[in-house]
């Protein structure tokens, strides 16, 4: 069961790269499904946001075990894929996350921090 993940967010396509951005979104689902099929991650969700006033266009949340996500972050194919996203979209972010089994660990960390701050006894 998943315990950690990577939240990959992007803003609007870089001007002049709109067609590449659309192709990259299509290709991303195939790439990520291949990672699932190969056992390199446990799953992923792709979200495209409806037009709105923020500059967040969408995000992908990749989930897996700590070992899977650590290995993925260092894999050459993932690094090339991530770099490609940064070339076609603005405001790209890769953020580590806790998911599923990892939520308990996140709660423990917050409780420890609250205790150290004297806010939880």
Tell me the layout of helices and strands.
Blueprint: E1 4-10, H1 18-37, E2 43-48, E3 58-64, H2 66-74, H3 76-88, E4 93-98, H4 102-116
Antiparallel strand pairs: 1-3, 1-4, 2-3
Helix pairs in contact: 1-3
Question: Top keywords for this entry?
Answer:
Alpha-Beta Plaits; 21% strand; globular
In words, what does this structure look like?
With 121 residues, the chain is an alpha+beta fold. The chain has a single domain (4-116), classed as Alpha-Beta Plaits. Helix content is 47%, strand content 21%. The chain has four helices and four strands, in the order βαββααβα. It has helices spanning 18-37, 66-74, 76-88, 102-116; strands spanning 4-10, 43-48, 58-64, 93-98. Strands 2-3-1-4 form a four-stranded antiparallel sheet. Helix 1 (18-37) packs antiparallel against helix 3 (76-88). The two termini are 32 Å apart. The mean pLDDT is 96.
In round numbers, the mean pLDDT is 96
Q: Which ranges are low-confidence, i.e. pLDDT below 50, for 5 or more consecutive residues?
A: none
CATH C-level category? Alpha Beta
Number of strands: 4
By oligomeric state, this entry counts as: single chain
Helical segment count: 4
| Helix and strand run | EHEEHHEH
- The CATH topology turns out to be Alpha-Beta Plaits
Please sum up the structure shown.
This protein has 121 residues and is of the alpha+beta class. Helices cover 47% and strands 21% of the residues.
